[in-house]
Design a protein that fits this description.
Blueprint: H1 6-23, H2 32-39, H3 43-70, H4 73-90, H5 97-125, H6 131-160, H7 164-170, H8 172-183, H9 197-201, H10 214-218, H11 222-251, H12 257-288, H13 292-313, H14 320-335, H15 337-346, H16 354-383, H17 385-393, H18 396-406, H19 410-429
Length: 446
Amino acid sequence: MRRISNKTWAMVLLISMLVILNADNLVLAPNIDAIEKEFGVDDAAIGNISAIFMVIGAAASLVWGYLGDKGSRKRLFFLSVVIGAVPCVLTALAQNYTQFFIIRVLTGFGIGASYPTAFSLVADLFEAKDRVRVAAFLAASVGFGTVLGTLVGGYGGAAWGWRVPFVVVGLPNFILAGVFWFLVKDPPRGMSEEGLKDLIAEGYVYPRTIRFSDYRRLFTVKTNLLLFLQGLAGSIPWGAIPLFLVAYLGRVRGLDPNAATTVFLFFGVGTILGILAGGLAGGALYRRSPALVPILSGIATLVGTVLAVVFFAASWVQGYWVMVGLGFVTATCASLTGPNVQAMVMNVNVPENRGAIFSVFNLTDCLGTGIGRFVGGLLAQLLTIGPALTVASLFWLPCGLLLLASAWVFPRDVRNLREDMRNLGREMAGGAGPGLSAASAPGPPS
């Protein structure tokens, strides 16, 4: 019988745990009205919880990203999953709004911490040409998790009340985390880089480690700067729309909770298919020309902007199946970008900085998502929920334009990384031989 590789175990378990971990993120979305009624709060209060949730996640991501570039990413990912699962289950025990607020915020720590370590792991497990496809699977797991959480929260909340769904989505990760701990090994840093992989396979040790000064270097990579900005803008709609979509469909379109949840399901399925399609298309385009990846992403995001505005603002969008179809197509177009952006980040940053870059990148995403949830809740109070979601959707416009602009700088940054790794490989081969320590090895170029 063929033995299952560490790479396969890692991907299966990473995907499974991210699905469950992110299911917690939107369990409350279909139960907003019930939670608000029980605790005596409004949309703005729920938006505040979700905003702080994302801020705490961003802070955790920064810490975990730095630690992951210094030590064991396996250990840190395991801890992030456990930290996220415990308060998820405890949410069911909240007796008032203050307890609910604190527990939900703590859950955000685990979700935020998981992001940089997961992507840093897969960047070393897979070569550059495969990273778009792999990033698509990881991003799809996040999307699938949010859909799963909404379904469990929607259908489960209608049957059992809003508390039980948090237990249902929290418990599986305790088992999965244990399996991950015993079956997955930390991959050697740099094992999949051109110019280094043969040396790493022979026993050489990647000689560099992150330094605080490297955070400044991250902002000298032009692709990073553009992707930071697009992530901040593009995350605002992804913060507001999933959180308030079910409520919008009930209040404005008059759908009952089950019908609204089903429309959200198709929106979620469109998101997942868009992520997977974006990863497959981006991988094929990357092999032809790296510049085509941001071009695809930018065009898809701009089309998604138009469709989202039509969905929330056009009075002629009527009928259950029209909303199902338009929501599905909108989500598909808007989500094509995700895995391509993540793969672009992997392919322009050195291995010892990938945890750091993904933590900073997650910071912009978390800030954007948090702003989206806060502004969505605030505008829903001031303008009603329909105009609030229309305004949020318009933030995809600058996101798409910034992605198109990155087509001019991304190919050059890819070439720079390849040359850096080839130079490092030549230095390693001429150094102390297999087992070379970080202390005796050359540092990163200035």
